[in-house]
Amino acid sequence: MNPNRARSQTRTDDTIRRYLKRADSILSRIADELHLPEDAYPAPDDVVAYLERHASEWKWATFRQYQASLVCRYEIEFERSQDPLFEKTADRIRALPYANCKKESEPGRTSSRKRKGVPKRDYDVLVANLSNPKQDGEYARRAALWLMAALTTGLRPCEWRGASLSEDGTTLLASNAKATNGRGTGVTRSVPVHPDDVQVVRAHLESLSELLSKGLTFAQIHNRCGEALRRSCQSLWGKDPSRRYALYSARHQFAANAKATKTPEEVAELLGHHSVRTARRHYAPRRSAWMQFREASKSTATPDASEATPRPSK
């Protein structure tokens, strides 16, 4: 075997960079599945087993890209170390069959069709539409409050159950939905609330409290607000799949905005995750941050860049 073939054949430098980036993402995903420590990577046998186990979930084109990326990664590792284990792993991955892959005629995975985050223009239109509904507006208005409060705090929808503001209004106290198996920062967490956002957070908490006092369960409130949001999206954009926003979309946008102005460790803390890797992989990317946050990241002197949490503009 030519030890330099990872950089020969038809791979350009740009292709290699893209392959290595994708390979790192796949290895991180496998590490998450195996509950490995933050800085650990899976063993070669585990990587091969992962590809074999999940091949039926991917179309051939996707499987081929994963395969090529990991082969490139292990070939380069072999170049550097001359460890035959890396060469053997590259050969094993290259030899994996495509027969078990999903047929091209089958639809892609649902998660691949979902849009993480909410562009600023869509958010503004959506909140305006929910706040001024043409009919059956009770839950539409409450859904608007939920979106606004979630965008400024990053709470998961389920974490609003039992959440409360501190007496001075500077901190939102909530349970951590990912507290098991060491995934979260603790059973509960404290989220800083900017003075400009206290009013909307308090209004959302009061809205939930009012409905709970009427005998509704939290699940019923969540479902009805979610349905109001779904109907609003449909009335605005029809069946456009890229604009099927959910209450959780506000958390994704919060994460994207935070990634533009915070370190990975700070973002993980704000989201309630122990793992930086999880915060990086499972939420909207930095490129989805709203312009005001991307601009703030260019200058540490910009006030928004030093806020405790990212905030939507008023």
Please give the alpha-carbon distance between the first and last residues.
Answer: 61 Å
Q: Could you say what the CATH architecture of the largest domain is? A: Orthogonal Bundle
Major sheet details: 3 strands, antiparallel
Count of structural domains? 2
The radius of gyration over CA amounts to 23 Å
The CATH class of the largest domain is identified as: Mainly Alpha
Order of helices and strands: HHHHHHHEEEHHHHHH
Number of strands: 3
| CATH topology description of the largest domain | hpI Integrase, Chain A
The quaternary state of the protein chains shown equals single chain
Q: Could you say which overall geometry the principal axes of the C-alpha atoms support?
A: elongated
Q: Which bin fits the share of residues in helices?
A: 40-55%
Structural class: mainly alpha
Number of helices: 13
Mean pLDDT: 85
How would you write the strand order of the largest sheet? 1-2-3
Low-confidence stretches: 1-9, 301-308
* Relative strand content: under 5%
Can you say what the CATH homologous superfamily of the largest domain is?
Answer: Intergrase catalytic core
Commentary on this structure:
The chain is mostly helical and 314 residues long. The protein folds into two domains: 5-113, no CATH class; 120-306, Intergrase catalytic core (hpI Integrase, Chain A), CATH 1.10.443. It has 13 helices and three strands, in the order H-H-H-H-H-H-H-E-E-E-H-H-H-H-H-H. Strands 1-2-3 form a three-stranded antiparallel beta sheet, covered by helices on one side. Helix 6 (120-131) packs antiparallel against helix 7 and helix 7 packs parallel to helix 10 (249-261). The longest helix has 22 residues, at 60-81. It is elongated, with a radius of gyration of 23 Å. The N and C termini lie far apart (61 Å).
